[in-house]
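Figure 6 in text form: structure in, sequence out.
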């Protein structure tokens, strides 16, 4: 991406789960803490539980984004997936320790996820030059709580629930552009997920990839390249602080 391209950006839209906030570490730690000793902190069981919960999310999002029936509220979705997991042989032993109030508390884990080390300083610097907003599959209250709990300095929040689907459905990106009153080429989607950026590019957004250790496969993370290097996205940065620096330098050049 050239300096001219970077100067064109008026708004950066950020994926939240896995890009801005570290769901993997947080959920793994908290399900163990709340398991009353049945899942040890740092154990493979705790990791597997968190990853299976997240895999259920991806399956649901894919189904609904393709037009099938299902809730567009992530809190309801997370609870449904949790309840389904507890009926399976591997996790059924947790039913006895996780009653209704425990399951509500577990679902609320997703409302207070750790921020990556670069998240707050990077976004704080970046918003000096462009508008920064969430564009997430989380429901609005979930995203509001996450921002409040971690001090994420958003200029605004777009929840896909408001648009009646989930990313990567094109109408989520198109609706965000409409409400920003911006042509797509003045918007950049920032994500740690290839599928999110490919969908954003299909409606004309610029695309910025930020590799995160628990997102995408290692093969995908290591193969992502900018278009000038023969890849699929406009820019690859190591973190938000690098992105802020590049946009600052483009504005000053």
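Output sequence:
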């Amino acid at each position: 991406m050239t300096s001219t391209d970077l100067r064109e950006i008026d708004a950066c839209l950020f994926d939240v789960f896995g890009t801005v906030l570290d769901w993997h570490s947080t959920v793994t730690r908290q399900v163990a803490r709340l398991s009353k000793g049945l899942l040890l902190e740092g154990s493979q069981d705790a990791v597997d539980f968190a990853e299976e919960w997240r895999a259920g999310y991806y399956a649901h999002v894919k189904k609904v984004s393709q037009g099938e029936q299902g809730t567009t509220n992530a809190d309801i979705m997370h609870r449904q997936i949790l309840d389904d997991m507890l009926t399976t042989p591997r996790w059924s032993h947790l039913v006895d320790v996780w009653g209704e109030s425990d399951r509500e508390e577990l679902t609320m884990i997703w409302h207070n996820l750790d921020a990556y080390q670069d998240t707050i300083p990077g976004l704080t610097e970046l918003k000096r030059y462009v508008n920064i907003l969430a564009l997430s599959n989380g429901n609005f209250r979930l995203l509001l709580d996450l921002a409040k709990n971690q001090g994420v300095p958003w200029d605004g929040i777009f929840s896909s629930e408001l648009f009646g689907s989930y990313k990567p459905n094109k109408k989520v990106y198109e609706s965000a552009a409409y409400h920003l009153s911006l042509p797509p080429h003045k918007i950049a989607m920032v994500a740690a997920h290839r599928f999110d950026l490919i969908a954003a590019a299909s409606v004309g957004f610029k695309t910025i990839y930020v590799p995160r250790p628990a997102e995408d496969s290692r093969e995908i993370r290591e193969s992502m390249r900018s278009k000038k290097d023969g890849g699929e996205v406009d820019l690859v940065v190591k973190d938000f602080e690098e992105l802020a620096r590049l946009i600052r330098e483009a504005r000053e050049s």
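Caption detail: The CA atoms of residues 3 and 253 lie 8 Å apart.
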